[in-house]
Amino acid sequence: MSRYRLSAQQPGLTVTVGWDHPLCTLFAQVFAPAIEDDEAACLLWIGTALREIPTVAALQAQLAGWATIPPAILDCLTHDQQAATPPTPLQQWVLQRLHGPGAPRPDRAEPRAGGAPRAPLRLQTTTIAHMGGFFYGDPTAYDPL
Predict the structure, then answer these.
(1) Is residue 27 part of a domain?
(2) Is 6 helix (H, G, I), strand (E, B) or coil?
(3) Which terminus of the chain faces fewer neighbouring Cβ atoms within 10 Å, N or C?
(4) What is the pTM of this model?
């Protein structure tokens, strides 16, 4: 993730732009620091959804009236976006689960025979009291010193 501060067109505002690698999007925030309530102080926050703002030109267009991105920061944003490593299969699966329609796990390409989806995996833990503390895991792996 990268963050750059800009001068706002209106005095007294704070503008931040950057590249959000986990969401694969550019983002921008405009705040009015004079307002004490954080929610009210946030005047604009874009780029919060997966691949919402895919290009620097789209970011500039959405910031019109708030700020103009200087050429040096445009270059930095372009570089940040291009230098981003592609998500791993596990990261892609998580992004699809969080932001898109359901997707099969990377190690299970298809549902079980007959079309029935597999039950979700549940972690199994056992809690054992031990000398005022707790042990999480397999009770047979406990070594009594």
Answers:
(1) yes
(2) strand
(3) C
(4) 0.65
Is residue 60 in a domain? yes
CB atoms within 10 A of CB 99: 13
Q: Is residue 31 part of a domain?
A: yes
Question: Is 17 domain-assigned?
Answer: yes
Domain encompassing residue 74: 4-87
Q: In tens digits, what is the pLDDT along the chain, a chain of 145 residues?
A: 899 999 999 999 999 999 998 888 999 999 999 999 988 999 999 999 888 999 999 999 999 999 999 999 999 999 999 998 888 888 888 878 877 654 444 444 444 444 444 444 454 555 554 555 445 555 555 555 5
List all residues 6 or more positions away from 67 whose beta carbon is below 8 Å from its beta carbon.
Answer: 6, 7, 8, 9, 15, 17, 28, 30
